[in-house]
Design brief:
The protein is an all-alpha fold. It contains seven helices and no strands. Among the domains are: 94 residues; 60 residues. Helices cover 77% and strands 0% of the residues. It is globular and about 55 Å long.
């Protein structure tokens, strides 16, 4: 049975792999564009998955409101960047302040959600906390739609196209490279936090990191 599955897998994947290699040879630049585009989006998914994995690994709760907290951070950065841009501030300063404000507001919302929706249900059945998480997710979604807008809002690029990057700009932009580098840095810092500090020495935390790296690999490969 195991041998049959291997043969079936080769029969299905083999032709696709052959066609993929053929396309790479025919137009390697186009393949690289697709690969780096998928890697960029996978990096964004991985940053979101990091929060999901840590919360579930520690308190065994699927935090359905995590994506909304991520959204609030993005909306905060958009508002700060838009206002400071209208005032004519320098792009580097805008990036830093938008980054700081997004972190502060996201932390504040996360702390408030924990105190209101999750902490009172810490000893309740897990289904109660799950329902509370879904309710908080719906509340935050509608709150942002009413406070801002349900329409698509473009985020103006604050990272300039550097002159030295022009030969590679048609393959990957400076913004996309920043996303990938940021994800890698976060991964490294988290690994160092677990391995070299006493902040999270227990085995459960180590399993969180292992799960995160697995999720990261899956998201990047399927993006």
């Amino acid at each position: 049975m195991h041998l049959f599955k291997i043969i079936l897998g080769i029969a299905v994947v083999g032709p696709l792999g052959f066609l993929g290699i053929k396309e790479i040879i025919a137009d390697p630049v186009y393949f690289l564009e697709l690969f780096l585009g998928g890697l960029t989006r996978g990096s964004i998914y991985a940053l979101i998955a990091l929060g999901y994995t840590m919360v579930y690994g520690i308190i065994q709760l699927i935090n359905f409101a995590h994506g909304e907290i991520y959204m609030i951070g993005a909306m905060t950065a958009l508002i700060v960047a838009s206002v400071l841009g209208l005032w004519g501030w320098n792009s580097a300063v805008i990036v830093i302040l938008a980054f700081v404000f997004a972190i502060v507001y996201s932390c504040a919302y996360g702390f408030t959600v924990e105190k209101i929706a999750y902490m009172p249900l810490r000893t309740a059945p897990r289904l109660s906390a799950l329902i509370s998480a879904i309710g908080m997710s719906l509340f935050l979604q509608n709150y942002v739609m009413l406070a801002q807008t349900p329409e698509f809002m473009p985020f103006e690029s604050l990272i300039p196209d550097f002159a030295f990057w022009e030969p590679f700009a048609h393959i990957i932009t400076a913004v996309e490279m920043t996303i990938i580098v940021t994800t890698v840095i976060v991964m490294i810092l988290l690994g160092m936090l677990i391995k070299f500090t006493k902040t999270c020495p227990n085995e459960k935390t180590i399993s969180i990191v292992i799960s995160f790296y697995y999720l990261l690999f899956v998201f990047i490969c399927t993006a």
